[in-house]
Design a protein that fits this description.
- By secondary structure, this protein is mainly α.
- It contains 4 helices and 2 strands; from the N terminus they run ααββαα.
Amino acid sequence: DAPHAAVMEMGSRPHTPPLGPLVEWVKRYRASFDIEGRGVVRDASGRFQASPAVVAVARAIQRKIARDGTKPTYFVQRQLPAIREHLHAALTAALKGR
């Protein structure tokens, strides 16, 4: 029921995604991008905002998606054999209990 599940499964055509969610995602996974610290800095008014390194990575990801789209992951399709096996076992157990 995740709103992005279909896009993760099937991929997407090139489009320009909003920068805000990408910034939040990069902050969450900043270690993967060798970004030190918490990924935030204080601006002139003392409020926290994303560090320039975080924004640069997010913009690079945004440009890549705008150019190439996203690749499908097929995370559901890869699990279909296990789902079928689990469903078969559950149905067999339910029918034995009748």
